[in-house]
């Protein structure tokens, strides 16, 4: 259990922060940027939830919890050492990826196929979900870059890849099952 009695520690005043294994790194380190952008994604989901109800709100709540799991996963390097550790750190699982895929499939079944790209917007919820999508894509790009330099959990990257797809499809659901999508008209303002 986490207990936070004091919020500021002053340990980061010189521009460093501690990873999950205690190693101190620069606050601009790629790993910190990756899990920091996952945290930013979580904040955008919180905004989207202000407009969500029912199943959509419940699914977004589950995603918020997953995003904390993902941050915990990404802030903990040394996956090889963790395999032998007495205490196993939290890692994203294939089941979390599979849940997103199942939810995407259910939502997508209610939609007509796209015949055009769509612009972010429509309902307030759809607009927020598109913001979630773009921020999660940025988190994915940073995590891909991190994976090119250090070992990361494959399920973490898969989750981020599915998550942006989830937000896209959910945005269409929030736009009256796609009927209120705003279609891109190429060259419309030439």
Automatic annotation (TrEMBL):
Pathway-wise, it operates in: Cofactor biosynthesis; adenosylcobalamin biosynthesis; adenosylcobalamin from cob(II)yrinate a,c-diamide: step 2/7
GO molecular function ontology, one term from the record: ATP binding
> Which Enzyme Commission number(s) are on file for it?
2.5.1.17
Q: Which UniProt keywords apply?
A: ATP-binding, Cobalamin biosynthesis, Cytoplasm, Nucleotide-binding, Transferase
Catalysed reaction(s)? 2 cob(II)alamin + reduced [electron-transfer flavoprotein] + 2 ATP = 2 adenosylcob(III)alamin + 2 triphosphate + oxidized [electron-transfer flavoprotein] + 3 H(+); 2 cob(II)yrinate a,c diamide + reduced [electron-transfer flavoprotein] + 2 ATP = 2 adenosylcob(III)yrinate a,c-diamide + 2 triphosphate + oxidized [electron-transfer flavoprotein] + 3 H(+)
Pfam families given in the database record: Cob_adeno_trans
- Gene Ontology annotations for the cellular component aspect, listed alphabetically: cytoplasm
Q: Where is the Cobalamin adenosyltransferase-like domain?
A: 7-173
Biological process according to GO:
cobalamin biosynthetic process
What does the UniProt entry say about where the protein is found?
A: Cytoplasm
| InterPro entries hit by this protein | CblAdoTrfase-like, CblAdoTrfase-like_sf, PduO-typ
Task: Using the UniProt record, name the top-level EC class of this enzyme in a single word.
Answer: transferase
Entry similarity comment = Belongs to the Cob(I)alamin adenosyltransferase family.
Tell me what this protein is called: Corrinoid adenosyltransferase
Which species is listed as the source?
Answer: Planktomarina temperata RCA23
């Amino acid at each position: 259990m986490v207990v936070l009695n004091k919020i500021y520690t002053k340990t980061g005043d010189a521009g460093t922060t501690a990873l999950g294994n205690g190693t101190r790194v620069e606050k601009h380190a790629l790993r910190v940027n990756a899990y920091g952008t996952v945290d930013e994604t979580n904040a955008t989901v919180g905004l989207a939830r202000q407009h969500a109800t029912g199943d959509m709100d419940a699914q977004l709540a589950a995603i918020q919890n997953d995003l904390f799991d993902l941050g915990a996963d990404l802030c903990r390097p040394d996956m090889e050492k963790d395999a032998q550790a007495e205490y196993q750190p939290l890692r994203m699982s294939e089941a979390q990826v599979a849940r997103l895929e199942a939810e995407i499939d259910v939502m997508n079944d209610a939609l007509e196929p796209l015949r055009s790209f769509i612009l972010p917007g429509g309902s307030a919820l759809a607009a927020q979900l598109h913001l979630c999508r773009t921020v999660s894509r940025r988190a994915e790009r940073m995590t891909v870059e991190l994976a090119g330099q250090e070992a990361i959990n494959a399920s973490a990257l898969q989750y981020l890849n599915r998550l942006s797809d989830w937000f896209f499809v959910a945005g269409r659901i929030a736009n009256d099952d796609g009927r209120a999508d705003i279609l891109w008209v190429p060259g419309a303002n030439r």
